[in-house]
Design brief:
about 250 residues, alpha/beta, Metallo-beta-lactamase, Chain A, 6-stranded mixed beta sheet, 14 strands, about 35% helix, globular, binds zinc ion
Length: about 250
């Protein structure tokens, strides 16, 4: 399996997942179709699916253009976002499987940012849209802290440290600045931040990270740690998550 990262708009990421054996491919959130179609043509792969994480236009807005070029393509999305996902052909739910050539992926239901937000996991690669970012998490547009807690700690909590995190946006540097505010004494944040600044200066991506890394510096994944709880003024992990998100919303 090869994962190609395709930057689009200001800070969005789309990903092309290629099965090297069959040369079949799926694309995650191809909101800017021209970049995706160019890569598909360059690589000469067979695009079989569009994997939509959620209904927002900067993720699902390119579906119809992709469908226009590839009328046979499956457009997959979460059951509860389905009415708002253009061109959807298959609405999936937690635990459903899908294949791309010889690769098998699994759907994880992670509602909160949107009601029907889903993530996809293929081998060691997690495509989590706007649920988890490097150093952060998505805004609670259509859900609450209880749901985001379930997403980050119950659903993603079952995944191994080695799993690579392919998220929906390049927000790493500003996220890590917030991490630093929450846990000023956490060295893992300093290391990741100086690395990320260096990468961005060279125009390089900071994705993917790994879940193991996120668990060392991302406060939204660290709601059980005393230093994060002290910042939030609570020892209830769900309340900690709620306070963190609120403080992040106000953070500039
Ligand atoms: Zn979104
Ligand atoms: Zn987004």
């Amino acid at each position: 399996m090869i994962v190609h990262r395709i930057p689009m708009f200001q800070d969005n990421y789309s990903y092309l997942i290629v099965d090297e054996v069959t040369q079949m491919a799926a694309v995650v959130d191809p909101a800017e179709p021209s970049a995706v179609l160019r890569l598909v043509a360059d690589l000469n792969v067979d695009l079989v699916s569009v994997l939509c994480t959620h209904h927002h236009w900067d993720h699902a807005g390119g579906n119809l253009a992709i469908q226009h070029e590839f009328p046979q393509v499956a457009i997959i999305g979460g059951k509860y976002d389905a009415p708002r996902i253009p061109g959807i052909t298959a609405a999936l739910d937690h635990g459903d499987e899908l294949s791309v050539g010889r690769l098998t992926g699994r759907v994880l239901s992670v509602p909160c940012h949107t009601r029907g937000h889903i993530a996809y996991i293929f081998e060691d690669a997690l495509f989590c849209g706007d649920t988890l970012f490097v150093g952060g998490c998505g805004r609670f547009f259509e859900g609450d802290a209880t749901q985001m807690y379930a997403a980050l700690h119950d659903v993603l909590g079952e995944l191994k440290d080695e799993v690579r995190v392919f998220c929906g946006h390049e927000y790493t540097v500003s996220n890590l600045r917030f991490c630093k505010l929450v846990e000023p004494a956490n060295n893992a944040i300093d290391e990741k931040l100086s690395w990320a600044l260096q990468r961005r200066q060279c125009g390089e991506f900071t994705v993917p990270s790994t879940l193991g890394e996120e668990r060392t510096y991302n406060p939204f994944m660290r709601t059980h740690h005393p230093s994060v709880q002290a910042f939030a003024g609570s020892s209830d992990p769900v309340e900690v998550l709620r306070v963190l998100r609120q403080r992040k919303d106000e953070f500039r």
